Amino acid sequence: MNRCYFTGRLCNDPETKQSQSGMTITRFRIAVDRMKTKDNQNPGADFLNCVAFGVRGDFASKYFHKGSKAVIEAHVQTGSYDGQNGKVYTTDFIIDSMEFGDSKSNNDSQHAPAQTNTTPNSSDN
């Protein structure tokens, strides 16, 4: 089973583009804290590349921004392409569902709905 769950903060504002077929493709990076060690030291964070398609991409670009806390369910997709300096390997987390990690009062987005969960829909894949 290829399923990931994580909570973190967006490192940048989501960047949205339209595919040739007109589907929304939204990309952003999210910082996810690593678990603390036994001696209670913070080992840092991982920075994950996220991609949201269709209505999930529209939702992310409309309601999330740099610093927003998000709860994400995704699946991992790896790939590669030929870059200027040889083969480049990629790892993306494809968003299956996304929710606010902060309450509305803590979220800078004044127009965001109080509760939102974008779940997969067969018509937007």
Topology:
Blueprint lengths: L3 E7 L4 E4 L5 E10 L11 E9 H10 L5 E15 L2 E15 L25
Parallel strand pairs: 4-6
Antiparallel strand pairs: 1-3, 1-5, 2-3, 3-4, 5-6
Most strands sheet = 5 strands, mixed, barrel
The count of DSSP E runs of length 2 or more, i.e. the number of strands, is 6
Structural class: mainly beta
Strand order of the largest sheet: 1-3-4-6-5
Shape summary:
globular
Rg from C-alpha positions? Answer: 16 Å
Query: Which stretches are low in confidence, meaning pLDDT under 50 for 5 or more residues running?
Result: 107-116, 118-125
What would you note in describing this structure?
With 125 residues, the protein is mainly beta. The chain is built from one helix and six strands. The chain has one helix at residues 54-63; strands at residues 4-10, 15-18, 24-33, 45-53, 69-83, 86-100. Strands 1-3-4-6-5 form a five-stranded mixed beta barrel. It is globular. The model is unreliable at 107-116 and 118-125 (pLDDT under 50).
